[in-house]
Amino acid sequence: MKNKILVVPGNTDLNRGDQALVWESIRLFEDLYPDLEVYLYESGSNQEEKNLQKAQTQSRGYNFITRILLHPRVKASSATTDSKEVNYSKITYIKWGFVAIFDLFNTLLLISRFSFLNKLGRSSLSLEQKKSLDLFPSLKALVVKGGGFLHSYGKLQDPYVMYYFLFDLMLAHRYNVKTVVLPNSIGPLKNGLAKYLVKKVLKKSSFVSVREEVSYNFVQEQLGIKAYKYPDLGFFLKSSTFDAKAYLLKHGISTEDKNILLTLRPYRFDGYKNPDRLYQEYLTEIGKLVKEQTERGYKFTFMAHTLGPSNHENDTLALKEVLGVLDAQIGKNVSYIEDYALTSQDIQKIYSNYDILIGTRFHSVIFALNEMVPCVAIAYGGNKSYGIMQDMDLANFVIGIEKVNSESISEMISEIESEKENYVQKIQSYHSFLEKERESLLASLNTVLND
Question: Where is the Polysaccharide pyruvyl transferase domain (predicted)?
């Protein structure tokens, strides 16, 4: 009988960072179990989105199933309206709220210890969701991929968001299936109910690990949960054999030039006052930065690291907005790449050809660091950027997305130029223990899963 695992919360091939985390999470378990059978949740609100989100990973032979607790967007939104918004309207949130209340009631029945309530909850599921539910009792483990999604900032919907992300762990606990949380960034949790829920669920997990010191301290001190600390799984990604130099030449990019690669994301600035103004200031400052650095002799590549499916996750929007405000003379020094066919391993190979990377997508930073390319990280959403760069002794090269300004980033670029050897030595020092850390992680998982 094969050892089955379900990797959650979902698979998103259009987000190359998430794809890398899914692939590296699976690779760990493939090293543990040669007879492994992998299941993943589909992502997307229509078939086109689902195909885009799973095609590359499905080609590796993994199985895709329907999520039991769907995101309210999938039920409440049509594929051509809400899913394409960057800033969701109040009406959208209200529609989602009604869907969430209904789903909360039905899924609470599924995690009840009373079988008759389980049957009642099951009756509300589709045929495909019932098949997913039937998989749970046969799982060797439910695996939370590496990454970071357990954070809240005191908003009204935070408890449901945490419930949505933790539901599969609770369902696994209902069937006495071991749950494994691979290196994540956890916290802050500023909503009391959300914090209580995270603490309650993680205490029942067989293995909880974090990817940086900030989260490690938070989990142990604020949640009172034993945690292990291991590097972000993206650091274990290996580049493909893809001919990146030839690819770049086709896009008019010569590796003989001084090149900076830029990754941006559209960002809603949830929880901030004047979010629209902050977003425009963020893009305006990036435009100023591009102008300043091209005048210093750099050429820029704007890379769409993540391509959707929603506009909130579609980097092309932010990049094209900046492109649209650059004058023609500056624009001659800027190239743009948007390519659905590239995998995370291809992307990492491309990044190896740059002098500096400026990344809002933190896994674009990790991919570049894997190739010894110095980076400036633009931090958003939780502890990951600050925590990991701090662990690498590179905290001086992080700036919050709400504080982005061309002057500060230009100063970081100048520091990289003058101290490049020292910067690269810090990357090498961090990388020197990665394989030992992976072996230690495998040993810990083996102990937990076979206890």
Answer: 15-380
